[in-house]
Amino acid sequence: MKQRCFYCSNPATLLCDFRLGLPFGERLRHIDGTEYDVTTIDKPAHTCNMPLCREHAEYRGWLHVNAGKNSHFDSYDYCPEHQGMVDTGAPVMQESEAERLRRVVVANAQRRLMRERGAVRSPPPPPEQGKLF
Ligand SMILES: [Zn+2]
Ligand SMILES: [Zn+2]
């Protein structure tokens, strides 16, 4: 099944690469008893993953995907919800928390779409077929 862009009906060729959080590695404990989570390099970061077409993706450059023999360069794109944002300093989180954040992003995106549709008060009039003749 071909996935469609969240914002239009074009086929989605990209996913938003914004990092919502770093993968959870393990929980450690400070000497004073407070617990803290540390990340791991064994798992990929929790990215937004919003399906996007080229038109709705903000191009951020190229990313080197380190995957052993399959290492390659991939374009690095953000969805409209994350355009202009920086994802350095993303917190360490579990997959369930990342899922919750993705749902928040989807809700924001739906609101954006509704606003954009609401801005168009009436559909543009259909072209008058007979006029040219
Ligand atoms: Zn699109
Ligand atoms: Zn995004």
UniProtKB/TrEMBL annotation:
Protein name, entry field: Uncharacterized protein
Organism, scientific name: Paraburkholderia elongata
